[in-house]
Design a protein that fits this description.
Elements (H helix, E strand, L loop, with lengths): L4 H19 L13 H17 L3 E2 L12 E6 L2 H11 L3 E2 L2 E8 L7 E7 L4 H10 L1 E7 L11 E6 L2 E7 H6 L3 E2 L1 H6 L2 E3 L4
């Protein structure tokens, strides 16, 4: 079997581009951290991923009112993730647009969002919130996140935060995901699986 060296190098570069900002806080696996630090580290890593996803997603042209409209991110059920994401995004731009982050309550989901993160392990709650949301790129962290219609779902693999992607869900929302993002995903789902 031969390995296509340029493709292998491209995958490594894409992985590094996504992971370098996260390496500062993820030097050790979660089980090596004390019980209080592991959840805080996991939340910081998820916030960093949410920020990095913006650089690898193209939103539909009509999703911005004008050239000055910011990219809006909503977080439900994890105020600490919203706070960390606000810190990360402060003063930064994506595709020439400022980034706004809001911690939301369930009743706030009717407002349009470019990205929505639904925290929590309750599959039924996540499915209900995703149906109620007016968001393009949806991200969850429950076992049935992709089955519930989420585009990206965080998962823990070997004590590390990883993510799965549903191409069908992205297509339904007309969100185009970069192949560089897909190469570093834990699993990419296309069709019923």
């Amino acid at each position: 079997m031969t390995i296509n060296q340029p493709a292998c190098l491209q995958r490594r570069k894409a992985c590094l581009a996504l992971m370098l900002p996260l390496l500062a806080g993820v030097g050790r696996p979660a089980h090596a951290l004390d019980a209080d630090a592991a959840p805080a580290l996991e939340r910081r890593v998820k916030a960093a991923f949410l920020y990095k996803f913006l650089g690898y997603a193209d939103f539909p042209a009509g999703s911005f009112a004008d050239a000055t409209t910011p990219v809006s991110i909503g977080v439900v059920g994890a105020d600490n993730v919203a706070a960390e994401l606000t810190r990360i995004a402060a003063g930064r731009m994506v595709a020439g647009r400022m980034i706004t982050v809001r911690a939301l309550r369930e009743q706030d989901l009717a407002q349009p969002l470019h990205v929505l993160f639904v925290a929590g392990q309750d599959d039924a709650r996540a499915a209900r919130l995703l149906r109620a949301a007016n968001a393009l790129l949806t991200v969850t962290e429950c076992d049935g996140g992709l089955r519930s219609g989420s585009i990206i779902n965080f998962t823990i693999v070997d004590d590390r935060v990883r993510f799965d992607v549903s191409l069908d869900a992205a297509e339904k929302k007309n969100v185009k995901l970069s192949s560089r993002l897909l190469t570093v995903a834990n699993r990419v789902q296309k069709g019923a699986s």
